[in-house]
Structure formats: C-alpha cells, structure tokens
Amino acid sequence: MIDARDMDLKTAARTVLDRLGADTAALDGGSMASFSPVTGEQIAALAEHSAAEVTAAIDRAAAAFRSWRNVPAPRRGELVRLLGEELRAAKDDLGRLVSIEAGKSPSEGAGEVQEMIDICDFAVGLSRQLYGLTIATERPGHRMMETWHPLGVVGVISAFNFPVAVWSWNTALALVCGNPVVWKPSEKTPLTALACQAILDRAIARFGDAPAALSQVVIGGRETGEALVDDPRVALVSATGSTRMGRQVGPRVAARFGRSILELGGNNAGIVCPSADLDMALRAIAFGAMGTAGQRCTTMRRLFVHDGVYDQLVPRLIKAYGSVSVGNPLTSRALVGPLVDGQAFAAMQAALEAAKAAGGTVHGGARVTDAAPEAAFYVKPALVEMPAQTGPVLEETFAPILYVMRYSDFGSVIEQHNAVGAGLSSSIFTTDLRESEAFLSASGSDCGIANVNIGTSGAEIGGAFGGEKETGGGRESGSDAWKAYMRRATNTINYSRDLPLAQGVVFDI
Ligand code: UN1
C-alpha cells in the first residue's frame, strides 16, 4: 500500500502505474495537465490524441471486431474472467489511484474497483446467456427465432467521478458481446484509464489469442470525443456526463443512425414519510447526500420531509452535516473528500447564493482550509432548508448540497418529486405499504431507479443502471442492458416443401 504521506502524489501515482505495468514514459510534457483534487498538485501532463489518431484507433478496433465477433461468446467470457482476476489482484493499487485522481476515500476507491470486479463476474455468466427467443410462427413447417450478434466498435466516454467503474460496465459487456472498445476518459482522470488499460493488457496476454486493439484509450478533450462520436464505424457511443454534453452527443450520433447510451445528470430526491424509520433514513440520507462529496450522478440532492416528522429529522441531519469529517482522503479517515476542482467549488457557491436569494436557509457549505493546500477545494457539505422547489433546486449542481423541503400531501409530493428535468434515481422512506407501492407504481417516481428505505446512490451492478428524461434514457450494467451492445436478427426458416406467405397473401406465378 502506498502511503501518500511519504511521497508527493505525482510519485505515488507513478509508483502505482509502474506496478500495474503501465507505460509511464510519456506522462509529462503534454498539453493536457491533470491534477489531484486531494492537494491540487499537478500529477501529469499527457499528450492529447489528435482526431487522426482517434480515427487510426477506430481503424484498429474495426479490424479487431472482424475477428473477435467470431470468437464464441463463452470464450470471450474467459477474457473477462481473467480481467476480473487481474482486477482482484490490483484492487488496492487501482483503488488508491482512484483516490489520488478523483479524491475518493479509500473505502469508496476500493468500492469502485469492487464494482468492476462484480460486473466482470456478471459478464462472464452472461457470456453463456446471450439468449434469443424462439417465436411462434403462423406458417406451417416454419420456425422463427431471434439471434443476437456482436454490434461493432463501442466508444466509451466517461466522467471523472467514476473514472474506472463506468469503463468496466461498458467494457465487460462489450467484450462478451463481441465488440472492441475505444475509451475516452475524462480529461481530469487519464491516469486511472492508463491503469485500466494495463490491467486489461495483462488479462489479454494470459488469454493468448485475442486480436490486437480490443480495448484502447484515447486521451484528450472535446475534439477527441467528437472524433469518436462522429465516426460511423463506432456503432455504439456510451457517454456518461452532464446533460449539456448529452444534448450534443445524442443528436450527433443519431444523425448518422448510430446508437447511444446516455447516462447524464441526476437531480435525485428522497421522500421521508410519517411512518419512516428515522434513524435509518438519517444514515441513508447522510451517505446519499454527502458521500463522494456529492459528486455521484446518483447523489441525493433534494429531500422532501413530511411536516409531522420534519422537526424530528431535520435538526438531526443539520447536526450530522456540522460534525461530518472533511479532509484529505489519503491521510485521514475523513468521510468527505475534496471537490474535483475550483470550478466545482465556484458552482457550489453560486448555487448556495441563488438558494439564499430564493429564501433558503443554508447550513454549512463553507470552504475548509485548515490543513488543506490552497489549490485543493474541500467544503463542508451544505444542507439548505428551502421554502419551495425553485431556482437552483431544479438543477443538478455537482457538489454536496441537499435541498430540504416540507410536504404534507402524498399526492402532491410525488408531483413535486417528478417536476425536475432529470430522472435518474429516487427513494422513499416509509413503512407504509400503500405509500411505498404507490411510489414504485406507474404514477409514482418517474426515475430509472426507485428505491424504498435506502438512499439514491450506491446501486449494485446486477440491475440496469440509468434514468429517464434529461438523464438520457440509457441503461448500462446489469439486467438486459447487454442488448444495447448487440444487434438482433429475426430469422424465419422454412423447413417445409411449400411456400405459404404470411398474412395469407396469395402470389401464384
Ligand atoms: C455515477 O455517478 O456516474 O449507484 C455512477 C451508484 C454507483 C454508480 C454511480 N454504483 O452510486
């Protein structure tokens, strides 16, 4: 285990990368500087891939596709099984690199790698379960079925906040489904991407006969991403990030009839009902709203508390906000680490100002400067009591702000709950069956994830992950999300000596 107290973070990151077998020769001298949010220090300056280099990567991926698609799926699963083994061996190192590059606590860094291991296990099983249906046909002596085939090159665009897990959800599924991957990680987290590539390369070496360029990393900003988005050979673009980014990516991919999985912003809410177990709700809300310094797309950002329990719950929450430990995740046991950068801090402060202007009472939210270098941005999470759902409450601010509102009527709180642009995750705290079932019903939460008596974040990989409306509608990870990575062919086979036409059509020549 690297102890970041003993070395600067640049050296610590390199030590991890070296140990994982990544090429550390070209981490400096490029135009894309990256920083550790833990201290604000620069840890790398990578060269960006030009659009032509991205195209060359897609050329190689397209060549890999031509052979990988013919490898039997269970054999493809073997590669993902090996990736899972390599990830288990690299868990501490990769988790630590996630902490250095994204500022997560060690437990959350390790948790993210565990999520990668879990999706590998899931995908290995899936490699023997890429089932198609057999469908009743109206014609005698015929059989109808569907077959799922590999789709093509998958482009992955990921965000800083889950710098490795999101790649693994996409890559584990893409590989078993017969597709190569080209990955553009966030400009803020390129080193964890190089680490993942090195880990996958180890699995590929053990696998033996995989085609070259099954998974490649392209480094860069907007232009690099655009080259991926616009290339017609990239059959599927799976993009995680802001709704603003998705508004650009979605139509561009659609314009060339490509497929996209969009996993965009969330404005996730919890509802605390009169019958709720308040101790449980308190803990769930604390993790959901303050965990990962509010930088999960599933972070709880709005909370509706019933009038009857408001005065019991909210003062306790405010106390928890006041006492939560904020600090360097590498050298302390703090639960809340840094914001990713100064821009995130500025956005948080602007949202808090707007909330005050809209009549909100702000608890917390100030910068924590003791023992933190000036270039790092640590904040006390903010709880804001709001008179109504207006202004900044309607938007996602990627920072630890929880807007708390009172409600009295169940029907209207569901309407309020759904009256925002995003539709990712949601939760209700209740022991009343009627309320929980209503929340989960067709006229309840309109989100892709709806939970009862747990928070909005921390989904397991076994379920489909994603949301509706401005969250983009994509689904990744478990359940049948794999279908987006394959193309479906409907096959009708005539094993009779006649040629009856469907719908009773007669065409005798
Ligand atoms: C994200 O923030 O982009 O449900 C993903 C969760 C995690 C994934 C979050 N399993 O919070």
Automatic annotation (TrEMBL):
The keyword Protein biosynthesis does not apply. InterPro entries: Ald_DH/histidinol_DH, Ald_DH_C, Ald_DH_CS_GLU, Ald_DH_N, Aldehyde_DH_dom, ALDH7A1-like. The active site is at residue 263. It is an enzyme of class 1 (oxidoreductase). PROSITE patterns: ALDEHYDE_DEHYDR_GLU (PS00687). Residues 31-488 form the Aldehyde dehydrogenase domain. Pfam families: Aldedh. Its EC number is 1.2.1.3. Keywords: NAD, Oxidoreductase. One of its GO terms (molecular function) is aldehyde dehydrogenase (NAD+) activity. Homotetramer. Belongs to the aldehyde dehydrogenase family. This is aldehyde dehydrogenase (NAD(+)). It comes from Paracoccus tibetensis.
